[in-house]
Write a structure and sequence with these properties.
This protein is mostly helical and about 110 residues long. Helices cover about 80% and strands about 0% of the residues. Helix 2 packs across helix 3 (about 75-90) and helix 2 (about 15-60) packs antiparallel against helix 4. The radius of gyration is 26 Å and the shape is elongated.
């Protein structure tokens, strides 16, 4: 088994082996670039969701106060609801902050 592998490797010319290695390296670089782009997109959307969540928290801070407010635990559940609103809002396009953050993240990665 080892002898056949050695014969195969020695029968491949050096330029062909180099081209294969370069192709594998490019594929690996492209895969890393795609993974970095996906991570940057997810991170930027998460950042925008936190930002939008803070805006929504202030918008909903006065909603439901009064005699029919839903009880003492309503504010706890409201924070969960507002968090989901923010995530949904960002998935639908948000306010455009994620695109700017993603572009800057990718630019910082390329600079390294």
């Amino acid at each position: 088994m080892a002898a056949s592998l050695t014969n195969t490797l020695t029968s491949i010319s050096a330029p062909a082996l180099s081209q294969t290695a370069n192709a594998m390296m490019m594929t690996n670089k492209e895969a890393r670039a795609a993974l970095n782009a996906e991570k940057a997109k997810q991170s930027s959307q998460d950042f925008e969701a936190v930002f939008v969540n803070q805006m929504f928290q202030h918008m909903f801070s006065g909603v439901g106060e009064g005699p029919f407010s839903g009880g003492p635990g309503a504010h706890v559940w409201r924070s969960f609801m507002v968090d989901e609103y923010a995530k949904s809002f960002v998935k639908k396009g948000g306010i455009g902050l994620a695109a700017h953050v993603e572009r800057e993240l990718l630019a910082q990665q390329e600079a390294k």
